[in-house]
Amino acid sequence: MRPSLCCAPLFLLLLLHLAFARPLFPLPSKTKNEEKKPIQTFRPYNIAHRGSNGEIPEETAAAYMRAIEEGADFIESDILASKDGALICFHDVTLDDTTDVAKRKEFANRRRTYEVEWFNVTGWFVVDFTLEELKTLRVKQRYSFRDQQYNGMFSIITFEEFISIALDADRTVGIYPEIKDPVFINKHVKWADGKKFEDKFVDTLLKYGYKGQYMSENWLKQPLFIQSFAPTSIVHVSDFIDSPKVFLIDDISVRTQDTNQSYWEITSDDYLAYISKYVVGLGPWKDTIVPASGNYLMPPSDLVARAHAHNLQVHPYTYRNENQFLHFNFFQDPYNEYDFWINTVGVDGLFTDFTGTLHRYQELTSPHRKDETANSLLVKISQMISAYEGL
């Protein structure tokens, strides 16, 4: 049986990827039926936002593998579609910010202007490239203040490759894929069988055995949260897959891309009662839960309390280590931020760019139960030895 690639040193995997220029992860996974350490469910979920993208360029195989190595409970990805209908892991509908497309002369004539979520956007769009063409692009770090040494090393990966990374891990790792910009994708990509983007998304999950309601036996074996900013997509896929879903919520100034509803409409008690029929949780931008002014936090809203009253989890985004993202209340210490959100606000999961930081914080403050059991056993042994020596 092929050993799990997630156990190999990261630098070796990078060299292999560059040397062979082919997918690191044969499909389907050959190790998914092995008995593995289960996912933890006793503390808020550590959700690797686009992988460990604080260290390695986002949505790449290396970023996801690094997140697993660092202790992520879930690896999160944005799913889009290529011109020829392949599902890929990529955040923006344009390729400009995180690939080398602007430097590729052969694609100079692909620049377009399309309407995206009520605005005209100009750039190189994923929907104008085939999967084969997308695979030739090299991914780069989004933020200039983060490590640039991996720029150009990695290619865009497919949804299936992403799934295989999770299934090939040496422990149970959940996936948290987003149905990204479905209105835009369905407008520009057509499948021969007449199915929609959401249908292809679900078909891929079912192909790899993802099914089951939250905390069911099937879910615990292959944990999954499906997320989307588009409520109509969530309702649509609910007819075809019973896995738990999370409704994402943007800034208070942003209307829903499919139903054109305001933030205030979709966070009302009436709407929470409606959407709770289809989802197990909300994924709000964290500054809508606790607003900030002058980089200082203001009093928290009641969104978390109201969501919990509707039996909905809350998984805010995005937590980042850098000082420019940390409000002054936290004294430039990400541990202080995690402490506030977990113990004061009471969230149930956190999307983070720095999986290792959140994992270390949680291991210090709420260690894994097996560690607690081991510590308790050591204490008991010490007590027994002391008692024996005292005889």
TrEMBL record:
Family note: Belongs to the glycerophosphoryl diester phosphodiesterase family.
Source domain of life: Eukaryota
Signal peptide: 1-21
Segments traversing the membrane: none
Enzyme class, broadest EC rank: hydrolase
Keyword set, alphabetical order: Glycerol metabolism, Glycoprotein, Hydrolase, Signal
SUPFAM superfamilies: PLC-like phosphodiesterases
Keyword RNA-binding found: no
Protein name per the record: glycerophosphodiester phosphodiesterase
GO process annotations (BP): glycerol metabolic process; lipid metabolic process
Substrates-to-products reaction catalysed: a sn-glycero-3-phosphodiester + H2O = an alcohol + sn-glycerol 3-phosphate + H(+)
Database matches in InterPro entries: GP_PDE_dom, PLC-like_Pdiesterase_TIM-brl
